[in-house]
Amino acid sequence: MRIPMLAAALVATFSLTAHATPPMAAGGMYADAKGMTLYTFDKDPASGPSACSGGCAQAWPAAMADASDKPQGDWTLVSTADGANQWAYKGKRVYTFSKDKKPGDAMGDNFKDMWHTVKQ
Question: How far is 83 from 3, CA to CA, in rounded Å?
Fold first, then answer.
């Protein structure tokens, strides 16, 4: 019983920082600090603003970085329209999906053949 509680505590306190890589969800997918699966969007340009706005942004919230977060390896930061920082993996902006209800869910994988889980 102690091991699952310890694992849950570690995941709950984990963030994308320069000191560690993001945790892996089931199936080798990357997840955010809450264990929610991360996705990329094929319509996002290689540089410039996100192609996901309005209703899209409500369904696919950006994976935002804290002010103390630093890029590491394939993980970089890109600016949002309001000047905040969003995580990017290999240059692609990263999002979560509102229909994923619990850690490890990947309901958005291959959604409309444009949304894909972030895998190593």
Answer: 40
Structure tokens at 101: 């209800």
* The two structure tokens encoding residue 88: 């990017």
Low-confidence ranges of the chain (pLDDT < 70): 1-26
Query: Could you give the CA distance from residue 37 to residue 10 in angstroms, rounded to a whole number?
Result: 17
For 2-22, write each residue's pLDDT tens digit.
Answer: 333 333 333 333 444 443 456
Cα 17-23-27 angle, rounded to 5 deg? 150
Distance, in Å, from the CA atom of 91 to the CA atom of 74, rounded to the nearest integer, reads 8
Number of Cβ atoms within 10 Å of the Cβ of 106:
20
- What is the chain's Cα-based Rg? 14
